[in-house]
Amino acid sequence: MKLKVLTCNLCEAPMRFENGKLICDYCGAVREIEKDASDTEYEQIANAEEHIRLSLERQKQEMEDYFAQEEQRQIEAEEEAARRERKRKIQERLRRLRRSLIRMGIIVAIIVAIGFLLKYMAQRRSEQMKTTVATTVEKEQVKKKDHVTKTDLLNDPQFLENTEKAALEQAKKVHYSNVIISSKEIWGLSGTPKLLESYLVTSENGNYLFFLYQSTLKTKAGDEKEVYNCIAVEDIEVSSDGKVSFNSRVYEEKAGEYDFYWRCSFDLEQLRGEVIDAKRNSVKRKYFIYQL
Fold first, then answer.
1. DSSP letter string, 142-166
2. In this structure, are strands 288-291 and 206-218 parallel, antiparallel, or unpaired?
């Protein structure tokens, strides 16, 4: 059966059925209904009133459910936001704690390092003082010659042998790392550097030995280059009893035409001229040069 909702003829508001009459709650109008066996209007009006009531109750319940769900979602959203905020604050406190611990660790490490450094410096100073005292006593007992001669060196062949070994090791170290032009062109030391010349150079500033070496650089393809290096030994001394020694370092002497990329010179005469002949021709200092 299709339901039919009747409205008031005066105000067009829905009318309700009561005791066989239609009553308008808005304007108070009353309408009589006659029912017979062939007319279904009476049942339609009665069912319409119930339909409206049920429909309104259903809409009311739906609205209440909707607002309850919205309220629950709002509560859950607020709780989630509060949970995230608490998590963020905890993470921030942890980050601050980690930073504080790291800073504290760095400070403690610095303090410990300074302590060890001060202790080391105190021990080193004490040892240096002892060494200075011992050296002073030794120098007073054994006088050193101001200038070392070729004869002094030849009279101590063991010193020459040890010095040449130290110079050769330094010449090898110069070319320990390869020269890389490209992935296919890599130059490395081939064989042992060859000693070509050695010189004893003395001046008012001290005594030096200079060794000129020839080295061969080679690639896997078989290409070769002949290069030259000058190795110097400084602070050579001879005691009054003829004992030769050196108290300083062994290093590479670099001339003006030194190629820093290849770590060498490519011209022996130029290298000799800039290292040895330049000292021989010096006007400011007096040099004594002996070729060994």
1. SPBPSS--HHHHHT-HHHHHHHHHH
2. unpaired
d(CA 80, CA 164): 80
Question: Exposed, middle or buried, 283 (CB in 10 Å: 0-12/13-18/19+)?
Answer: exposed
Q: Distance between CA atoms of 157 and 292, rounded to whole angstroms?
A: 12
Collapsing DSSP to helix, strand or coil, 96 comes out as helix
Identity of the amino acid at 51:
H
**How is residue 184 written in tokens?**
């296919």
Q: How confident is the model at residue 4 (pLDDT cuts 50, 70, 90)?
A: low
Cα distances (Å, whole numbers) of residue 81 to 74, 75, 85: 10, 10, 6
How far does Cα 189 stand from its chain's mean position?
A: 33
pLDDT tens sequence across 40-71:
555 555 566 666 777 788 888 888 888 888 88
Cα 265 to Cα 230: distance, rounded to the nearest angstrom: 9
Percent of the chain with pLDDT over 90: 27
d(CA 253, CA 279): 13
E-strand stretches of the chain: 16-18, 21-23, 30-32, 179-182, 185-203, 206-218, 224-234, 236-238, 244-246, 250-253, 288-291
Is residue 237 within 8 Å of residue 246, measured between CB atoms?
A: yes
- Cα-Cα-Cα-Cα torsion 265, 270, 271, 274, nearest 10 degrees, comes to -130
